[in-house]
Amino acid sequence: MSNKITNWILFITLCLIWGSSFILMKWGLYDENQLPVLSAYQVAALRMLSSGLVMLPFAWQALKPLPASTIRYVLLSGWLGSFIPAFLFCIAETKIDGALAGSLNSLTPLFVIITGALFFRMKTSAQKLSGVLTGLLGSSLLLYANNSQPGGYLAYTGFVVLATIFYGFNVNMVHERLKGVGSVQIAAIAFTGLIPPALIVLIADGYFSLPLAEHKYVISTVASSALGILGTALASVLFYVLVKKAGGLFASLVTYGIPFVAIGWGLYYGEKITYMHVIALSIILVGVYMANRPEKKKAIPAD
User: Fold this and answer.
1) Where are the domains of the chain?
2) From the CA atom positions of the chain, what is the Rg in Å?
């Protein structure tokens, strides 16, 4: 199989996994009649616990060559890039649709640029700034479209936006502080380090006191665990592989595929998606394209 075909298989697989993450959250939170089963904290904690347990066998080997100062940043990456956003997304999806959450997730590349400029002295340009402003305009329309509907919850869409800010900050931190650390190393240490806090949340929120043998709790637990194993651990490793094989530019295009998979699931489950949502998402994706498009190099005048 050629490298090009392999890259596209990885690309499509990642779009499907990450795009389906939002419906898996819904399956963890609610039963087939849309009645609550697990709390947002329980679903998020199960996601983190399962991703940590899957990566646990690789953690010891990953720790060996790293100094303590580097391990601190890897563990911090786990909190900023996975733990906190997992809870923010689950809390948001108690009030908003998965399709909307998936669409807002496409803001991540824009916040990579914003947090990079604000906190990491990353150089920006008029083109990137135009892309960021266009994307933020699209997100404002998306928030307006959701809040103008019956049952729209502006504050809960804000939780998703906050999660993408954490994602953006984490990408820059990893780039600046963990350049020499292998991708699987980061995933193994970061996710394993989240096992204790995830267990604490599950115990504190009464998960182990639930009648877990009942059908609805089994389904919700399996969905939440699949979210961690597939949507966090496996997808992270596959993404790192894609970056190394095809380059960061091609890998970053996954951002464009995720919302459409999320919207597809939303349509299948009868979530309300209006023309305004589609227009707003299109504006966001145009902004992402503008901000990440390679800039033309200025011609050097001949002497």
Assistant:
1) 3-292
2) 20
Is the pLDDT at 129 greater than 80? The verdict is yes
Nearest residue to 163 (alpha-carbon basis) of 210, 98, 247, 104: 104
Distances (CA, A) of 60 to 44, 108, 189, 193, 236: 25, 31, 8, 11, 19
Sequence-ordered list of residues with C-beta below 8 angstroms from that of 272, at least 6 positions apart, any chain: 97, 149
Match 């135009």 to its residue by tokens. 130
* Contact between residue 255 and residue 288 where contact means Cβ atoms under 8 Å apart: yes
| Residue whose pair of structure tokens reads 């993408």 in the numeric block | 164
CA–CA gap between residue 294 and residue 37 (Å, rounded): 46
Integer CA distances (angstroms), 191 to 38, 155, 228, in order: 22, 28, 10
* pLDDT given at position 86: 96
- Those residues with Cβ within 8 angstroms of residue 35's Cβ, 6 or more apart along the chain or in another chain: none
- What is the pTM assigned to this prediction? 0.89
**Dist CA 166 CA 5 (whole Å):** 33
pLDDT of residue 148: 64
Q: How far is CA 247 from CA 110, 184, 239, 273, in A?
A: 19, 17, 10, 34
